[in-house]
Amino acid sequence: MEALKNVLSPLGMNTNAIQDTLKLVVIGGTVETARRASISAWNGFVDSFFLTAHFSQEDYPYDWLMHWLSKQPAWGRSREFEITTRTTSRNGLTQSTTGDLEDDDEVEDEDALVHGRRKRKVAFIPSLDTTHTIYYRGHWLRITRTKRYPDYSHGASLKISVVARNNDILKKLVLEAKREYEKDAEHRVHIFMADTTYGCWRWNGARQKRPLSSIVLQPGVKDMLLADCRDFLCSEDWYAERGIPFRRGYLLYGVPGSGKTSLIHSLAGELGLDIYVVSLSSKGMSDNTLTTLMGHVPSRSVNVHPLRGYAELFNFRFVIHYPLACPRQSTSTSNNSDTNDGSTLSLSGLLNSLDGVAAAEGRLLFATTNHIERLDPALSRPGRMDVWVNFTHATKWQAEGIFKCFFPSKPSASPSTEATSQEKTDVSQKNMPIPKRKAPAHAIPVLEESEIAELAKRFADAIPEGELSVAALQGYLLKNKVRPRESVDEVADWIIQERETREKLKKEKAEREAKEKKEAEEKERKEKEEKVAKEQEEKELREVSTTFAILCHGSLANFLTYLCRNSSERIEAKSKKAHRAEAAMKLEGKLESTAPAATSTSTFADAVIPVTRTASASSSESDMSSGGIEADTEESMTSEEEPDKPADATPGSTTKGKWVAVKGQQGPSLGT
Ligand SMILES: Nc1ncnc2c1ncn2[C@@H]1O[C@H](COP(=O)(O)OP(=O)(O)OP(=O)(O)O)[C@@H](O)[C@H]1O
């Protein structure tokens, strides 16, 4: 310090101030160093004693953990959390929680309605960017939820740290979370939609599973499909041993409203798979996008995509797809440039996405179409579509099944022997949906099984075979859902009405089509006429411009042509008049000597004066004197002007005379 003073004093500086500053720097530096050292030491301690697991929202374990966390009693005591009535993840299960605001008894009844609306339940979920500590099986878990992309609803991740010797505790935690998740998800089918902008899948909701028994198909169809799917799902090794791509395609084709979509939904529920839907007509859908999407369908999921836009081409609507060993969901935006390249989907792109080199393995693919005849054979060949199922309009058997499925019934006091004997003898009845036995939710009368069976029979008898869709029957029964007996009594009238409506619609459609056709023809005819008229006009214009080119020269002729385009008829008339006047003057022998000659051409010259005056004197005569125009001019002169020539006039003087007569308006120097 003394040395510093000795150095600074000759310079005349305040040594006290400098000393204080230096002290501050030293103290501050020491504190900051200590802080960093302590953080680093803590991190080292955490790293050596804590086990940390990361869960990304793109993968299933994140859902399991979020679901598990939402059920933890400790969560309700947390000092910072989010309360939501919304489903916060694709699992749709975070709504059930221990932190409910209402009495447990009330909350337990999931179907309870308040003022006609379903009760909303709240969920307690970890708030973002906050570390929570909860106790689990003798360990303290430190849980932090962060968002990787703040601007997007997806992209969150979960970090769980625990002090432990090995990761057994984390394994147990994940397994427990998974079991609970699957137990709660048992009755739901998750739907994912394709996001063509980012080339990834977005969770769209969880729907209640549809019992397979509620789908009424011809006997054996459902069983065959279910058995085939199950067999496929457990045949991975068999496929691998034989080198066959582990994929299976189903083509469901037939009339609209016959249950194709419903069957897919039902099968997905039965097999415990998620449904992935991609519309090929989506904006931005391209070969690349579809290939990316198909390559990123998670394992053991079902993927549906209606091909509405493509339906115009192939009328091909659904794909169910589930690869067994693919990343869960790609939210990567790295594909954007590829996916948004504006290209459209092609047949080869579609085929490639189904079984190209990049196509995912281990998936079920269901495709549906209303017009199988329009499908490209390449699309429906075995290997791409292995199983074909035809869906027709409702048969009597289906009508009976739908009726039984629709109305609740209770066991008969004295079962009808007739019905029993029928069921025993009719093997196909095995496929009949199980009649609902639940207590009615509304004022639906619960009839005895025997009565329902009898009504169903009568109903089926009244339904014409293969004429109405099952969806139409369902619509009719829905209208009569509290009137089972009346619905049977009135079904004949309804069928008549349906036929009339169909006829009317058909007629209207035919009329509309005829009108559209007529309009199209009319339009085409008009266009043709316009084209012909235009061609004619152009031809006339060419002729007129040729005439003027004879009379004028160089740029003047060009301008006249331009004028002619605007008012060809007027100018043509003027030109003819000018010709006549000129010829008259020639005949009178006054062409070069008298003023009236110039006046006589003034009518025609009116149109050219403004230009001839402003036109540069140097405007190249050579432009017009060379090339095709001159050739035309000479030719036209020969053919058109000769009749007007006086017998004694030389060709040269005639031409010159005309030139002078018009250009004479420009000034005396041009006259001869
Ligand atoms: N075979 C069936 N069994 C039970 N319900 C059916 C059946 N067919 C149709 N439905 C009912 O009709 C409605 C429409 O059925 P769905 O959408 O499955 O028909 P689709 O064949 O897929 O029609 P589209 O080809 O027009 O898409 C659904 O509500 C479904 O409940």
From TrEMBL:
Q: Which segments show compositional bias classed as Polar residues?
A: 86-99
Q: What is this protein called?
A: P-loop containing nucleoside triphosphate hydrolase protein
Family from the record = Belongs to the AAA ATPase family.
Query: Could you tell me which residue ranges the BCS1 N-terminal domain spans?
Result: 25-215
Q: Which UniProt keywords apply?
A: ATP-binding, Hydrolase, Membrane, Mitochondrion, Nucleotide-binding, Transmembrane, Transmembrane helix
Known catalysed reaction(s)?
A: ATP + H2O = ADP + phosphate + H(+)
* Compartments, record wording: Mitochondrion membrane
GO terms (molecular function) for this protein are: ATP binding; ATP hydrolysis activity
Q: In what ranges is there compositional bias, type Low complexity?
A: 593-605, 616-626
Q: Which domain of life is it from?
A: Eukaryota
Is Lyase a UniProt keyword of this protein?
no
Q: Which residues fall in a compositionally biased region of kind Acidic residues?
A: 631-643
Could you tell me which SUPFAM superfamilies the record lists for this protein? P-loop containing nucleoside triphosphate hydrolases (SSF52540)
This chain's source organism reads Boletus reticuloceps
Q: What Pfam families does the annotation carry?
A: AAA, AAA_lid_BCS1, BCS1_N
The record's Gene Ontology cellular component field reads: mitochondrial membrane
